[in-house]
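Dear colleagues,

I hope this message finds you well. In preparation for our joint manuscript, I am sending the Glycoside hydrolase family 32 protein (Algoriphagus lacus) sequence together with its predicted structure, so that both groups work from identical material. I would be grateful if you could confirm receipt.
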Amino acid sequence: PSSNEQYRPDYHFTPAKGWMNDPNGMFYLDGEYHLFFQYFPDSTIWGPMHWGHAISTDLVNWEELPIALYPDSLGYIFSGSAVVDSDNTSGLGTAENPPIVAIFTYHDMAGEKSGAADFQSQGIAFSLDKGRSWTKYEGNPVLPNQGVRDFRDPKVSQIQLSDGSKSWVMTLAAQDRVQFYKSPDFKNWSLLGEFGQGIGAHGGVWECPDLISLTSPAGEQKWVLISSINPGGPQKGSATQYFIGDFKDGIFTPDDTMIRWLDYGPDNYAGVTWANVPKEQNRTLFIGWMSNWLYSQVVPTKTWRSAMTLSRELSLFDVDGTLLVKSAPVKELETLRKEPIEVNELSNLPAQAVEILAELDGSDSFSLTISNELGELISITKESGLVSIDRSKAGKSNFQEDFAAMHSAPMSWKAEEIRIFLDASSIELFVNGGELVMTSLVFPNSPWKKIEFHQGINEGVIYQLN
Ligand code: FRU
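The corresponding C-alpha cells are as follows:
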C-alpha cells in the first residue's frame, strides 16, 4: 500500500510506528508466515525490547499484529527464534494442540549497569493459538548465563544426531564464537560444541547465528552457519558472514577458511531463516533487517525506524569448485508486477516502487544510473571484477559520516543479468538471480524519476510494483 509518509516503503515491511531491529522467531503455520521483530513502540530509537509481530500469506504483503512479548522482571526480550513443537516435547501444549515455542534472550539492564557479565540468559514462551498470544514459561531462564558477557540470539531447529535420534539444537552467539546446545524439551540444555575462534571475521561481536542445511549443485548435503557481526562488516559497521561445511552432533567443520558475506551491501543485518516451511516447498527462506548499526538510529524517517529486506530464498551455487550462497528474491514478489515497460537506453520510472530486469550484453561490465530532477543519483557498475553501488550523491546523508559512500563487492565470475528492486528508501541489487547481492538504504530528496543504461546493457524491462 502506498503511503504519503516520505521514505515509507511500499512493499517492504515496516512497523506502523516506533523502532524496529532484528527479525525474530520466524515460522510458517497453516498458510501464514510469521515475522516477529525487535521492537520498541515508544520511540524511534532503540530501547526496552519487545517482540513485535506481523503475518503474511505470501512473504510480500504484511499485516502487523499486536505486540507478542513484553519485557518483564527478567529483562528486555532480545532476539531469538520460534519453532512448532509438533510432538509436544516441551509439554507446554497437548498432543492435539501442540505448542509453538519461542526462545529468546533475556537482557537484564540492571545487571548490565551493575558491571556484571552474566546479564544475558535464554528464556522461552509458548503459544497455543497460532502465535496470537504468548505465555512465558514460569521456569525461565532455561539456559542461564555461562559467564560470557555476550550470550544471546538463540536459533533452534530440530536436527538428527548420529545415533538416529532427533534433538532440538540451539545455535547461540557467545561473543567471538557460536555455541551449539541440545535439548529434548526446551527446558534443559547441554553444550555440544562451539565454533569460530580463530576463523572468520572478528572485527566485532558475533550475533544472530543460524544453522541451515542446503544441497550443493552436486547433490551433497552441506551445512551453512550464518553469523552476523557488528562491527567488522565489509562496508563498515554490521554485516552477515557465513561458513559452509559439515555439522555432526554439535561439531561444525568448515570446508575452508574463506570469509564469505551473505550480502555485500551495507544494509542487511541479523537475518535468519523461517522454521517449519512445508517440506514440499523445499525452500530455505530468509529475511534481514535492512539497516546498519552505524546509522540505524539517525536515518531520516519520522514516525518509525527501519524496514526489513525483501524475503529471499537461499541456495548453494558453485564458482570453480568453491561453494557460495545465493539469495534470490522470493518468487511471490512477481505477483506485485504491473504491465512491463521496455527500456533501451533511458526510461522514466513510473513510481517509487519498481523492479528493473536487464540482460547484460556479454562484456561482463556494465554501468547504469538512477536519478531524480535534483541531480541526485545512484550509480551501479561492474568493472574489473567489482560490482559497486555508489550512493554518495543519492540524497540525504549528513546524519552520519559513513553513509555517503560507494560500496563494492568482488565478483570474479561473469555477470549475466541484473535485477533491481527500488522502494521509497532502498535499493536491492541481485546479480545472476542473487549470486551477488547488495542492499542499500537511500534517502533521495525527491523520488527517483529516471533510469539510464550507459554501458553493457542493451535493453531491459521495468515493472511498476503495487
Ligand atoms: C543484533 C542485536 C542482537 C540483540 C538485539 C537487541 O542487532 O544486537 O544481538 O539480541 O540486537 O535488540
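For the figure legend, we might mention the following. The two ends are 7 Å apart (CA to CA). Residues 21-22, 38, 49, 78-79, 105, 152-153, 207-208, 270 surround beta-D-fructofuranose (CB under 6 Å).

With kind regards,
E.M.
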